[in-house]
């Protein structure tokens, strides 16, 4: 009986880890500030910015499509089986930023906040 329960639990956990892995995807996202006042208060971009977004396995990389080509990468392993959750990354100055996903997979909106401002940037797939 215990062996059966153990195997059922083990198989369930293996299945859950497969579900939480995001399918590979690439898309262009438009970033906008949730509160436009943040753009002037914190020196952010004056308007929407295009970003190349790539999910490869459990890694999300998003890169600004401007001359500066800022790039950020986060590990998606901490997401829930339905694809939702919040993951933590570090910028080039070792400051934490947070990427939050609603349930889903592939190209979908996500929000980015950081440890130094109260502003939220929303990344939405370009249609």
From TrEMBL:
<feature type="signal peptide">
    <location>
        <begin position="1"/>
        <end position="22"/>
    </location>
</feature>
<protein>
    <submittedName>
        <fullName>Uncharacterized protein</fullName>
    </submittedName>
</protein>
<keyword id="KW-0732">Signal</keyword>
